[in-house]
């Protein structure tokens, strides 16, 4: 069977194909929808199976431009009922094409065919047009229109049902209703926009215009019109509406609206949100300068007028913050910002800007101000800075109006330091730093940074405490010197005792040796013991007089108390008893180690003074325990006069003292309090205790030790020194000889010198050396200089040092240091620990 040459699926209405034997050959998709049958159901069936009273003319040899038309009845699959259908026939030499139209209401007479001359004229314009003949109910669609809908660019004459495939039901019914009003003479023209669906399901927006053509009796015969594709325009309009919607949403979220004042026409435009801010409606309020001023108080109106006129006259930006009274009587705080628009000659033609409701933020900032000023005076600068590092509320700073309103002009820190502090404040919510400096302590600040997450604002509170800091440092030094002077009397007594024991033992040793006595070891032990006691006294005294260090270290505070109990006792008169009770389980804390002992010394001296106010004898207890939070508590309790309840809140104040005249300046406890809280500790005080006097409690976060603390004793394994060549430098020849003799007993080869000249000679003529041991302070050079000389010749030599002086500069010395005086055991342990 030869398939038809015509592409029936490209025809926009139902079509059946019948062969010469009047059997169905094919049908398009629209015909399948109309009949309810599929192509498989109908192929090879006679046409009478589907249509009655149809006469298919098989004699026509060519495809007619206009075919015959007849009315028949279609038998649909759903109910096999007779349905009236209009059929048009066209032929070629093989097939007959049956075009099926749905029934329409016919008039008594068929109108004349659509005028060919009119169509020709319209088609010559290459426009999309259409014409609807009412009598035949046929619509003529131009070639351009058919191409728009997705068909071949050819004109088509089709029934009204053709619209079903491309126009939604509601729009189609509205279109037909409007056409009827044209025919009835109720309107002279029609213009409307519809959404249509193309053949490939693409949605388009088209604008339809129409007019009617009447006969001589005024009865409508035809409706004709044009069609324009306005999809792009509609899309732009929709996009603009969407953008406008976004703008309105953004304005509502930010409590702001935009405005424009036409200077030439003296007209003002308000966005929708501005009406809401002012509490009025577009229907009842016409925006203008005077009408807007009516919302302001009389005091503000004149200043606003002046500011607005200055912006226009000087072509400069406009800014104003003021109060309005809304229509409902409520007050609101608004902030208005504007920029000028100028013409080509530079003349101001308009002002454009935004107006923001800042009522809520003003209230919030007032609250923040109150919070920020707690425990501060108004003289303390406060900076409110947002996430973008802009000052958002600088008028809280008393320096407003001068150069110091900028945080970086007030504190001379770097960008990296600023960002680091900002990051810490954001992560923790708040940070506080006291006595912080960014320029080597030329200026010192107390600094607080609080992050308000809800507002995205950082509150910087900074106070220049340079003078206060310097006075405190001077006072600390004065206190230490005073304490040192107070201590020297007792310490010097002990040193004299030590020297007396040593001198007596040496004289006994000399006497017994001259008498030929062989067993002199006990006298030697006496000398050693005396020297050890003297060393203990001087070391603690030197450590106490050192410049205060702020380096935080991890150490065992209980061991520190035990190691320094000798110093506590030295500072007390012999009629005051000192008791120390410590737990067996040891721990470590993070705190400046020297400051820990200094705090206890300060409290012990205060306790002694309190006892003296009551009498000459008494008791001081230093106790320690772990509380319920597993923190270490150190208690200092005395039997003195105690502290009156009304004075408890004053004792940590600088320069307050309850002691007798010339016995205290009130700085000691203030320093204790400051040091404790600087390093995250706590101090509490009770006016009365079980001993009768005051009770101070120091609390530290600690880490308990489950293993016994390391005593620092290291086995003296000096086998690695055998055959080593060792150079020793010390201006005290007896010390150099002692070290050399000790090392030689362990298999080393030694060479000792006492000054720079001897050192250079040994380097040039006695080397090479494996180890260099040097004193740190010599008459003609330092240990550092000596080490540099040795390293120039022996770059891989191991360096050890010896020193009887304790100073902060030793913190930067990279080599092990053995403190003088030392005995053979200490020298052995030092070398075993240092030489690996």
From TrEMBL:
Task: Set out the biological process GO terms recorded for this chain's protein.
Answer: regulation of DNA-templated transcription
Q: Does the keyword NADP apply?
A: no
The question of whether Transferase is a record keyword is answered with yes
- Recorded catalytic activity of this chain's protein: ATP + protein L-histidine = ADP + protein N-phospho-L-histidine
SMART domains recorded: HATPase_c, HisKA, PAS, REC
- Start and end of every PAC domain? 190-242
- Tell me the ranges covered by the PAS domain, including all copies: 8-70, 114-186
GO terms assigned for molecular function: ATP binding; phosphorelay sensor kinase activity
Q: Please give the PROSITE patterns that the UniProt record associates with this protein.
A: HIS_KIN, PAC, PAS, RESPONSE_REGULATORY
Q: Which residues carry this modification: 4-aspartylphosphate?
A: 775
Protein EC: 2.7.13.3
Q: Which Gene3D superfamilies match?
A: 1.10.287.130, 3.40.50.2300, Histidine kinase-like ATPase, C-terminal domain, PAS domain
Enzyme type, top EC level = transferase
Where in the numbering of this chain does the Response regulatory domain appear?
A: 725-835
Q: What is this protein called?
A: histidine kinase
| Higher taxonomy | Bacteria, Pseudomonadati, Pseudomonadota, Gammaproteobacteria, Alteromonadales
